[in-house]
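Thread: Modeling a multi-component assembly for a lab meeting

Hi all, long-time lurker, first post. My supervisor asked me to bring a structural picture of a complex we are working on to next week's group meeting, and I have zero experience with this. I have the sequence lines for every component (556 residues in total). Could someone generate the structure of the whole assembly? Inputs are pasted exactly as I received them:
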Amino acid sequence: MLHHTFIKVRGYHLDGYQHVNNARYLEFLEEARWGYLEQHGDIEHFEQLGLAWVIVNININYRAQATMGQQLRIDTEFSAINTKSSIIHQKIWLEGTETLVADANITFVCLDKKTGRAVVIEGDLKHRLEPRLTNQIDI
Amino acid sequence: MLHHTFIKVRGYHLDGYQHVNNARYLEFLEEARWGYLEQHGDIEHFEQLGLAWVIVNININYRAQATMGQQLRIDTEFSAINTKSSIIHQKIWLEGTETLVADANITFVCLDKKTGRAVVIEGDLKHRLEPRLTNQIDI
Amino acid sequence: MLHHTFIKVRGYHLDGYQHVNNARYLEFLEEARWGYLEQHGDIEHFEQLGLAWVIVNININYRAQATMGQQLRIDTEFSAINTKSSIIHQKIWLEGTETLVADANITFVCLDKKTGRAVVIEGDLKHRLEPRLTNQIDI
Amino acid sequence: MLHHTFIKVRGYHLDGYQHVNNARYLEFLEEARWGYLEQHGDIEHFEQLGLAWVIVNININYRAQATMGQQLRIDTEFSAINTKSSIIHQKIWLEGTETLVADANITFVCLDKKTGRAVVIEGDLKHRLEPRLTNQIDI
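Re: Modeling a multi-component assembly
Sure thing. I ran the full set together rather than chain by chain. Output:
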């Protein structure tokens, strides 16, 4: 259930070191997650339920530099569904190579907009997300 | 009635050309406008009136490059108040020098949030803003 | 010779007003220009000549708000080639509608990286760019 | 040896959820690190040695939302100096309160620009950084 997003590195993505800036990668990852959610019809679904996915942790490894003109491929998948949180795992590859540019775990809670509290991931919610879990274990 | 904002150029402000990116200057200008509005108590005032200042045009000249570690000073002032729009004029200087890095005219309309339409700038609204106009003419 | 770039509005493109932020549009326009230059093989060509295109003015009209989930189409074309500067004209449309979200003129000079001075656009340089001019007049 | 940076939340820092976007916090943290390095004269020092500090990991917890007009205080300090990497620990507070908005560990390596390899943190380099370690243990 791997989802792919492609982003080409442009001049405005770089910083003074001539490589993609550390903060910009988080926008790349967010772009990929919106694409993933869209593909699964999640955006409208959670909107209707009055639930918002709120990030509580991002743990990102920067493994290789990406520079001007390079094509990146971002792989996005659910890697864990816990009682009150879920983890989306994302890998940024230099497209067409075996070079891993960055990888990250994004931990979310599912917030009830009315109460402002994280809901327990059970019932329909769990059934919706669980089939997307990959067997692939990422640390 | 000139307002000053100071911003130091950092690595993440630069792009692949090692100078501040064209889009980033618009964030610098926005930062300075918030500072200006705050100083005059405008944010709460217009919030209470149900009015939102919405940008309809930005015309910015990029005159000199700004790079890592340089200190910028942004001067902000009202330069025109028209029937339905106003112009804020901003200049970005390399602090302590006569180098003008960029200058811009930002044209706003004052939107009534209920109707979604631009209001006529008259009465109290005009009296509030008019004294801030400088005699200094900028083209 | 119109070039199209498509960008979907995501949550991170918005600002506190829930619409695409004024500075973000300049990144959208830059994205589109890189796509345009790439399509014409300009990036490597000017790199080899030691020439850099440097923005000296952006004049952008914000005509309609763009919000979450909307698909934007950016049209990019050369609209003027002057002695020492050129103008790229760009329009941002709400895809599939007649709604013009923004339009902008981007004025460039062609900088000789060795001398740091703008070159005269003549000879091969002029021959390369001139055929791309559209008859369409934009004010 | 705690260093403080102050940033006021502005409209352009927010995203569609009306709170500071996850990627923007990384710019806030980078701003604070530049301020820290500057205070200690590190920027020129490492420049002269031909060393670049390159981020290999960011682990950030988002603990509370920050919204329009709030004043943030960012505390920056070294929390670990290992053989080939160092950790800078940063906390983002809602100024004047006990609300922790976010906290992050930023892991760096010290890259020799000539070889492109991480150097061992020993000798003068270690002596320069070690006194800055705080006793305060952050997990």
